[in-house]
Amino acid sequence: xxxxxRASSHTAGLxxxxxxxxxxxxxxxxxxxxxxxxxxxxxxxAGELLGLLGPSGSGKTTLLRIIAGLDAPDRGRILxxxxxxxxxxxxxxxxxxxxxxxxxxxxxxxxxxxxxxLNARRRAERPARPEIKRRVGDLLDLIRLSGFGDRYxxxxxxxQRQRVALARALxxxxxxxxxxxxxxxxxxxxRKDLRRWLREIHDRTxxxxxxxxxxxxxxxxxxxxxxxxxxxxLEQVGxxxxxxxxxxxxxxxxxxxxxx
Length: 260
Ligand code: ADP
Fold this sequence. Notes:
Elements: E1 20-31, E2 34-45, E3 49-53, H1 60-68, E4 75-80, E5 83-84, E6 95-99, H2 110-119, H3 129-142, H4 158-171, E7 176-180, H5 188-205, E8 209-213, H6 216-222, E9 225-230, E10 233-238, H7 240-245, H8 250-257
Parallel strand pairs: 3-8, 3-9, 6-7, 7-8
Antiparallel strand pairs: 1-2, 1-4, 4-5, 9-10
Bound molecules: adenosine-5'-diphosphate.
Residues 31-32, 36, 54, 56-62 line the site of adenosine-5'-diphosphate.
GO molecular function: ABC-type sulfate transporter activity; ATP binding; ATP hydrolysis activity
Protein name: Sulfate transport system ATP-binding protein
Family: Belongs to the ABC transporter superfamily.
């Protein structure tokens, strides 16, 4: 895929300054009477892997859904680069997502699953068939499932399915990749392997990614920067080292400290 040669961003948190890919600006959201997000702002840098960490119910999924366009905020804006994307429908946002239970299409082969987003485009925007085939081949290589294109989801392990789901999300070359506990349902060893593998893929593609997890180890191991959410408020954003060494609040300290 064309993004494969982009530079790694793993050092972004240390020295480099990069541009803002996504700006979340003063987002608030209430469901029924419960306020779920409170005036939340955060900049996601181009090419970074941002871990969105917080206890269950802290608003992580809601924020991701708002960025994706699956939910609308009550207040605030979502900017993609300089463009206001707040009013755009999900199909117009060029986002890719993988959710824990966002299943593959069972009746489609692995290759057709990966090509789905490209095939679904209007004719004028759809790549030619050989180009789609080439891109699917590159993605199968990337997820280390070359030769699996003709298989069906039922013939794959859980971890392999999530890798295909990731390839499907990457196929459309999204502005941002949104991952919501994508390995949540898998067992500990598979989960650990996939973490390492995701980091590797990210280093090779430089794809701007937001990764939701309630698992501190996962966030600290994977992320360029970690954003810690608690009860709908952003407590702190920083590199894994920064948030561990200089927690901005007692809440962050407690939450990060709980696992050591
Ligand atoms: P997290 O991803 O951090 O676990 P969520 O964003 O899923 O948190 O949920 C935050 C809060 O918002 C929870 O209390 C949840 O019950 C509530 N919530 C989320 N979606 C809805 C919805 N569609 N309707 C009503 N309440 C919701």
